[in-house]
Each structure stands twice: as C-alpha cells, then as structure tokens.
Write a structure and sequence with these properties.
- This protein is α+β, with helices and mostly antiparallel strands.
- It has one domain: SspB-like (SH3 type barrels).
- The protein is built from 2 helices and 8 strands, in the order H-E-H-E-E-E-E-E-E-E.
- Strands 2-1-6-7-8 form a 5-stranded mixed sheet, covered by helices on one side. Strands 3-4-5 form a 3-stranded antiparallel sheet.
- Strand 3 and strand 4 form a beta hairpin.
- It starts with 11 loop residues before the first helix and ends in a 7-residue tail after the last strand.
Length: 163
Amino acid sequence: MSEQTPDSLIPYDEIVQEALRAVVGRVLGEVEKAGGLPGEHHFYITFKTQAQGVDIPRQLVERFPDEMTIVIQNRFWDLKVKPDGFEVGLSFNQVPAKLIIPFAAVTGFVDPAVNFALQFQAQIDDDGEDTGHSSAGNDAPPAVIASAEDGSNVVSVDFTRKK
C-alpha cells in the first residue's frame, strides 16, 4: 500500500481561493450599500497591477509594475461592487483616479481596525518566483497594521501541487 496522497481531480485550491475572494466582495458590497465605512473599519487591498481586467492609470502601473496596495479609508468615492470585481475612486498625490480591480487580481485584504486579514495564493511570474509587492500608493494617512501573534485572524491558503 502506498503512503502517497493521490492527486485530486477536484480543483480544491481554486474553489477555496474563489470563495475567500467572495468575502472581499461581500464586505465591499456592504460598504457600498451603507454609503461608507462603519466605525473605525478601513481596508488595505493588495492586487496584481497587470492582471487581466485591471484598469488603473498608466503612471500607477509604471510605479507599481507588479503589485500594489490601496487604502480604502477616508478619501474614496464611487465604490461600485460587481460580481467579478469592484471600481473605486482614489487620490494619488492629490490627483483623482478611477480604479477597476477584478477580485481575481486581489492577493490580500486587511482590516486593521479588527485585526482581520486574508491572503490569497500569489501569482507566480514566468521565472517561477513570487515577485512581492509595494506598499500603499494612494493618499491615506499612515497606519500600522497590527497582526495577531498567534495568527488567529489571518487566513492564508497555500495548496501545493505535485508535478
């Protein structure tokens, strides 16, 4: 009898990633319905800038060629949530911009007010390396992201596949 785990014919990793990204959509949808953020809640959303469907100003792609983090806090407008993504208005160096971000491009979501975070499987470049990300680029007050030492509020899913 073999000790090896058989390869799954069900794409569990993709199903879980999609479900976790739906959490981001539901949270943003609640903010859209309410017309603003409740209490002290605010979000750091990290996404791949060159992922399919991402539409951001050219200068942002040049400044953040792989990944960037935006802050949804005090200065945002026209938040619209759709089944496959969201659009939001933000200011970058006091220049307003409209961003369109599909949920499939999102790699991280943090709400520091309640110490909640989701991390999604990073997309790998052609060299097989994770390319990392840059810090928040929009005009937001500096903030410190607190994290639980035991990781109890951080959900990270990383499935490895046999090749």
